[in-house]
Amino acid sequence: MTVHEIIDSGITAADPAGYVEATIRPDGQLAALRIDPRAMYDLTAAELAGALIEAIQRASSARPDAGQRTT
Q1: Residue 30: which residues within 8 A CB-CB, separation 6 or more?
Q2: pTM attached to this predicted model
């Protein structure tokens, strides 16, 4: 499976402002993270960190098995 196929098979979500987009693989691992270049000028470091967390959490919670945990 290529990197593009792995990313395409995952769940992608963004922060509310659209600065950050995260893709989570079906196994729950982070597959891709895209940061809009405007974020460097528009956001503080703390705001960017919050946007990263928000995008990753949204993508993770959108997975079909997000409510199930395996150990």
Answers
A1: 22, 23, 24, 56
A2: 0.79
